[in-house]
Structures are given as structure tokens and as C-alpha cells.
Task: inverse folding
């Protein structure tokens, strides 16, 4: 996702404010200031980056000791003690982590090499027949399409992958921030409504099982990131007042199956890479880099390079 926010005079970061509710439809908009939505976008984007196959961007941020501070800054902007604590745990582990080391750990957890694999796909946690799974996948694709977002060419992972779902919510948060800067209440309703529906119908259903499975196999970087994502989503569920239908907690996750999981990682023996060491862009129009912080906000609508959904 190219940075859609132009640089400008720094803005003061406000504390948490009471939720607002639209007079048109009653959809809650919550964070009144756009800076809060930007910090939420940063958290989602950093979680997506951390849960993806380690590439140049994550490696560079870890080497420069930037990943942890970015997380802490974003979490601090939302002024939520639970988010801050979870971000601190990731930052502590990230300070001692290197890209090459995480590459192997990622392959063991999310790749297809021999051993236990943690599924990063929503559909593997859902009960029901194949037809149900097909409908769910089509629904996810519909959310992306509604905001003119598509999976990048060369990406082998399915649309229900956790990195795509978190990137999508990051994108919605940036759109929300932009629309708030413009005072577009109708546009805000559209975006917040989509955010609410996506959390309730998709990521909010299975995030906890994903975090649980990661914690069974890992006690380091990936467990901390999965726990942070769980706190982020739990915060969303509370603020958006949604009630996701949680996936079952008793069935074992299906073992790796190419028809279900996609064919990511065929080129490097299950490490999850394409074989050439390159990390593909995920969703066209979404993450190319982690969103800038609120200090990069412009003062007027002309600073934005992209309009929200019409």
C-alpha cells in the first residue's frame, strides 16, 4: 500500500474519546480523530507484515530496531493498556530477532515442510461442507472487490489468509482517516460499516483459534504477534459492538492440503517462499510499506492522494 498520507505539520494525538453514532443509520464511528484510525491501520499493517514470510521490509526494520518502536508508537496512540502491553511483548522479542532466523521459524509454523503446520487460513477453522467454505471465500472476495482491491499477481495464497485480512482492515482504517479529515460522514458510514461486517463475519470468528494454534507451537516472536493481533481484534469487537460466531474450539485443524491452503512455498521445500527470495506485494492498492504515523498527516484534503469509496 503506497503511503496515501501527505506530510504536513504534526498534529496533537488526542486521548480516547467516546464513540459517536451516525444520525443516518446508527453505525458507530468511534475514534473521532483521524489520527486514531491511522494508528489502528499501523497496528494491522505491522501484524500483517510480521505474519508474512519474512522479506526485505521486515528484515530491514528489525535490523534498524524500528519494528518494535513502530508498534509501541501505534499502540500508544490508541491509549489502550491491553494493546500497549501486547505491543511491548512483541517489541521485547523483536529486539532480539533477525530476519534470517525468523524465515526458518516461519517455514516451520506456516510453511508446508514436514512437521506441524499452523494454518493461516480462515476456512480451515470453519465447520461445514465445502459449499459453505466456497461461499465464505466468495464473501471475502466481495469485500475486497467493493473497495477495488485485488490479490497481487504471483501471490499463491488464498484470499482468506490472515495477512490479507489484516491488510484489508488496515486499508479500511486509512480510508476512514481520510474521510474523517474531509468531513465525509456518508463515506465514513460506508467504511465503518464494512469494517464492522468484516470483523463480525470473518476475522473476528477465528483470530483466537489462530492465536491459540500459534502459541501451541511457538513461544517467541510469532506467538507474541499472534497475541497482539488477538488483542487488536478483541478491541475491535468491543468497540464495534459485534458478536462474531466463533469457530469451534474442539476440532483439530485440517492438515496441509493444497486444495484448501493454496500452493505457497512449493519453490523452496516448504519454507513458504517463491524460491527467489523475493516477497510479493499482497493486495494491489494495499500494503507497499507500513502506514506513516499521525505526524505525517496533512492539514487539508488536498494532502490526500486517494479518495474514499464513492
Result:
Amino acid at each position: 500500500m503506497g503511503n496515501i498520507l501527505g506530510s504536513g505539520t504534526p498534529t496533537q494525538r488526542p486521548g480516547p474519546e467516546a464513540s459517536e453514532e451516525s444520525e443516518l443509520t446508527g453505525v458507530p464511528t468511534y475514534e473521532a480523530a483521524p489520527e486514531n484510525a491511522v494508528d489502528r491501520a499501523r497496528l494491522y499493517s505491522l501484524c500483517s507484515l510480521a505474519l508474512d514470510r519474512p522479506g526485505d521490509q521486515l528484515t530491514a526494520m528489525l535490523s534498524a530496531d524500528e519494528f518494535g518502536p513502530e508498534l509501541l508508537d501505534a499502540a500508544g496512540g490508541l491509549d489502550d493498556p491491553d494493546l500497549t502491553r501486547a505491543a511491548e511483548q512483541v517489541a521485547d522479542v523483536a529486539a532480539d530477532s533477525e530476519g534470517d532466523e525468523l524465515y526458518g521459524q516461519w517455514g516451520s509454523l506456516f510453511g508446508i515442510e514436514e512437521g506441524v503446520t499452523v494454518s493461516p487460513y480462515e476456512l480451515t477453522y470453519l465447520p461445514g461442507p465445502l459449499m459453505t467454505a466456497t461461499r465464505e471465500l466468495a464473501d471475502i472476495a466481495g469485500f475486497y472487490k467493493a473497495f477495488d482491491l485485488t490479490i497481487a499477481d504471483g501471490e499463491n495464497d488464498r484470499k482468506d489468509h490472515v495477512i490479507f485480512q489484516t491488510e484489508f482492515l488496515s486499508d479500511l482504517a486509512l480510508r476512514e482517516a481520510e474521510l474523517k479529515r474531509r468531513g465525509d460522514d456518508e463515506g465514513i458510514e460506508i467504511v465503518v460499516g464494512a469494517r464492522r461486517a468484516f470483523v463480525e463475519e470473518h476475522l473476528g470468528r477465528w483470530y483466537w483459534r489462530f492465536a491459540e494454534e500459534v502459541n501451541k507451537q511457538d513461544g517467541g516472536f510469532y506467538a507474541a504477534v499472534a497475541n497482539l493481533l488477538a488483542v487488536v481484534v478483541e478491541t475491535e469487537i468491543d468497540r464495534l459492538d459485534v458478536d462474531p460466531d466463533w469457530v469451534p474450539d474442539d476440532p483439530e485443524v485440517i492438515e496441509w492440503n493444497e486444495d484448501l491452503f493454496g500452493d505457497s512455498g512449493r519453490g523452496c521445500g516448504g519454507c513458504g517462499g517463491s524460491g527467489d527470495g523475493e516477497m510479493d506485494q499482497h493486495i494491489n492498492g494495499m500494503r507497499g510499506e507500513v502506514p506513516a504515523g499521525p505526524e505525517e498527516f496533512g492539514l487539508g484534503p488536498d494532502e490526500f492522494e486517494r479518495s474514499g469509496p464513492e
Remarks:
- Confidence is low (pLDDT under 50) at residues 1-20, 22-27, 263-282, 295-310.
- The radius of gyration is 18 Å.
- Residues 185-217 form the longest helix (33 residues).
- The chain has one domain: 34-293.
